[in-house]
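Hi everyone,

Forwarding the result from last night's run.
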Amino acid sequence: MDEVVRVLTEKHKTIATMESCTGGGVVNAITNIEGASEVLKFSAVTYANEFKIKMGVDSQVIEKYSVYSMETAIEMSTNIAKFANANYGIGITGKLNRVDRFNNAGADNQIFISIYDCDNNQYYNFDLLATKKDRKENKDLIITEIAKKLLTII
């Protein structure tokens, strides 16, 4: 994330995150970099559906597509960017190495990531399979892929 923070700073751009399965891992990686306060506007860890909804995710999207879907990740990225008035919003949802008894739909270990470029009203969406046996390794994989993608966008 060193390079991401550097480029955002140089371009006077800001970022916000709404994370679920990564549990704040992306924002943690950003705040580990000196100068992060110049680019980070806001972050929310929304494990429970009710808090995704409170942060602006349309409950009908969750009902129709499930909380583990690209449609939900898109809602997350859009709403966090708008809430924080940030140039970029990141939404992450998916299952890491476990079955969710509250949300049965959605493939196990499939992670949905949406990066919203608010200035150009453009989405960069991709999904990953979290195939590592360890949660931390899966989170690290996701964070690394998000950093790579951000560098191609900003």
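The beta strands are 15-19, 40-45, 88-94, 110-117, 122-129.

Cheers,
N.
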